Amino acid sequence: MSAMTMSAPDVGTTSYGSPQVIVTVLNEDGRGYLLSWVESAFDTGMPECMAFQYADGVVTSWLDEAVSYEPTPEEAMADCIRQLKLLVLVKKERKMTDKSDCPSWAEDVPAPVDRDGNVVPLTTRELYDEAGRKFEVREIALVNFMIGEGQTWRVKRPNGLAIMLDSCHLECPDSWEQLLKDLDRAADTTGVIKCACSYLTGDVDTECDDCKSYKKGRWCTQIMVEDIARRIRELREADDAD
Q1: Euclidean distance between CA atoms 162 and 190, whole angstroms
Q2: For residue 192, which phi and psi values (nearest 5 degrees)?
Q3: Alpha-carbon distance 242 to 237, whole Å?
Q4: What is the model's pLDDT at position 184?
Q5: DSSP sequence for 209-225
Q6: Residue 86: helix, strand or coil by DSSP?
Q7: What is the pLDDT of residues 44-85, one digit of tens each?
Q8: Residues with Cβ < 8 Å from 123, sequence gap 6 or more?
Q9: Could you tell me the CA-to-CA distances from 196 to 163, 180, 207, 215, 219 in Å, in that order?
Q10: I need a surface site. Which of 98, 110, 197, 233 has the fewest CB within 10 A?
């Protein structure tokens, strides 16, 4: 985001009559971003600003790189530019080969975590809802809301529906139905060891070294029973919490 120039604002209206402000933020090669703020978004009726990749006088991708819901164009565009600077930082972090030199998340910027506390890569394209249903992810973006303070990570689906990242799961959440499914699969398998393999990995032909549950010097059946007990306790605690 260094050595970039912001254009004068282009003030107008959208095709459906909402006031609109457009600016470009470009480098010396004419590449950068187009920022579009509308007073009333078509789908929500609320102020919204989006940033899109822009080069040679045209938008090169309509996948928004940043989004803000601040009420004025000045505040919203400043927020989008801050998000774009963070995006550049994240892209640089991915390119670094020595992880010990990777920068942490920017100061005062929360890490993108799911409901279970797992850090969610910004390139994630599939998540799970609370019911364990997998859904496609269009984008993960850091946003500010007009109501309340602070920042939060938002997930947008291909249909435009936006939900909070911390209400999603990076991995499919456990359930009584999933536990029974795993047990039924194991019960349908012949042989004590293969029964444990089927439960722990879903594949009776999995090699011990490829099994994430394998522990040298311990019986697989013992590991299986311990895991079943752990899942039952955690599921009961979840039921009690509800």
Answers
A1: 46
A2: -60, -50
A3: 9
A4: 93
A5: GG-TT--TTS-HHHHHH
A6: helix
A7: 889 999 998 899 899 888 777 788 888 999 999 998 888 887
A8: none
A9: 38, 14, 12, 13, 9
A10: 98
Structure token digits, residue 38: 């509308």
In this prediction, the residues of the chain whose per-residue pLDDT falls under 70 are 1-3, 87-108, 145-150, 216-217, 242
Rounded Cα distance, 29 and 235, in Å: 56
d(CA 172, CA 54): 37
The predicted model scores a pTM of 0.45
d(CA 91, CA 110): 17
Establish how many alpha carbons lie within 13 A of residue 163's alpha carbon, considering only the half-sphere containing its beta carbon. 19
d(CA 33, CA 50): 10
> E strands along the chain, which residues?
5-6, 10-13, 19-26, 31-38, 48-55, 58-68, 126-128, 134-136, 139-144, 151-156, 162-164
Burial 120-142 (b: 16+ CB within 10 A, else e): bebebeebbeeeeeeeebbbbbb
Neighbours of 205 (CB within 10 A): 9
> What is the reported pLDDT for 218?
76
Radius of gyration of the chain, Cα coordinates, nearest whole angstrom: 24
Query: In the numeric block, which tokens belong to residue 21?
Result: 């402000």
Q: What is the three-class DSSP state of 85?
A: helix
- Going by C-alpha positions, the residue among 61, 59, 55 that lies closest to residue 32 is 55
